[in-house]
Design a protein that fits this description.
alpha/beta; 11 strands; about 300 residues; binds manganese (II) ion; binds guanosine-5'-monophosphate; five-stranded parallel sheet; six-stranded mixed sheet
């Protein structure tokens, strides 16, 4: 079985990949675990990280390709090649409402707060028990995608899945410490720069991070994760967009909204996708043009409802 997850991987991507991979391996399957981008440093404590490769499925070697937490085929980056994918059966497991269902079989549950939560449900149906290592990977997926059980899609089922993983030996406190309370100083300083630069445009706010910022503060692109969630704690803006310049000249867009707004349309208009309150896209540079493009998408697709007429 070949299992792959999305570019710029987060805790749900890596946690789901390593968790499901480990369980399949334990139950006697041969597995290949793949991601086009390296594992961020704060997730390298997860068991099995060093076994992740950056190659796509091969019909001579694999009987099945599984895509995890990837909202569309493009999110697999170089791991997706339409020709190769058409030659072997594929399964998509994902919780993004915008997922078009690009597999032969598609398990898509937009109610699930993370792909890892879906995998816990799947294991129950299959009668498989995670060991402590797999449980740690899956709980990390749940904890990161719900920002510590705080997102609006966190349900009783999310907590029940987490409880099950703790019973299997997953250390919740260690996971939350590593994910939320341990950041390189450069990453914190990068947050500071983004905060200083945050520009309010009507109901929206926008900030950009340049390649020069990353160089000066000696932080990798993965360290920029979390900045949009941090800035979205600002009470006034309806939505916040953080743009980050990439080496290839394209711009990664990460957006967060306050409850009540819906970013998924704006993200799709930009060629990306995601959830109502957290969405993203990759757009063409340069930065200044990308900022205008993002603001325009927000104005058109995520505007506040018109104020009721005053009496
Ligand atoms: P983040 O802002 O944390 O990078 O991403 C927020 C959400 O938007 C995630 O659920 C992620 O899957 C989705 N997302 C981010 N970037 C892209 C993109 O380029 N394309 C698509 N389809 N979804 C994205
Ligand atoms: Mn996810």
């Amino acid at each position: 079985v070949w299992l792959g997850t999305h570019v710029d991987p987060d805790g749900d991507a890596i946690g789901s990949l390593l968790g499901l991979g480990r369980i399949l391996r334990t139950s006697g399957r041969q597995v290949t675990l793949a991601c086009a981008d390296p594992v961020p440093s704060d997730l390298r404590f997860l068991p099995g990280c060093s076994t992740i490769v950056d190659s796509g499925p091969d019909a001579r070697e694999h009987d099945l390709a599984v895509a995890l937490d990837a909202g569309d085929a493009g999110r697999l980056g170089d791991l997706f090649d339409a020709g190769t994918w058409s030659t072997l059966p594929s399964l998509v497991i994902d919780h993004h409402v915008s997922n078009p269902g690009f597999g032969d079989v598609n398990l898509i549950d937009a109610r699930a707060a993370s792909t890892a939560e879906m995998i816990v449900g799947l294991l129950e149906e299959l009668g498989l028990e995670p060991d402590a290592g797999a449980a740690t990977c899956l709980l990390t997926g749940i904890v990161t995608d719900t920002i510590g059980f705080r997102t609006s899609n966190t349900t009783a089922a999310t907590l029940a899945a987490a409880a099950k993983l703790m019973q299997a030996g997953a250390p919740l406190t260690e996971i939350t410490q590593r994910i939320f309370s341990t950041r390189p100083l450069g990453a914190l300083r990068l947050q500071g720069r983004a905060l200083d630069r945050l520009r309010v445009e009507g109901p929206f706010a926008i900030a950009s991070i340049t390649l020069a910022d990353l160089g000066e503060l000696n932080v990798g692109p993965a360290e920029a994760r979390g900045i949009s969630s941090f800035l979205a704690t600002a009470a006034e803006p309806r939505a916040v967009a953080v743009l980050r310049e990439r080496e290839d000249g394209q711009i990664d867009v990460s957006m967060r909204a306050r409850p009540g707004a819906d970013l998924s349309q704006a993200a799709q208009a930009l060629g990306g996708g995601g959830h109502a309150l957290a969405a993203g896209a990759r757009v063409d540079g340069p930065l200044a043009a990308a900022e205008e493009q993002v603001l325009e998408a927000l104005r058109v697709h995520a505007a506040p409802p018109p104020a009721p007429d005053s009496p």
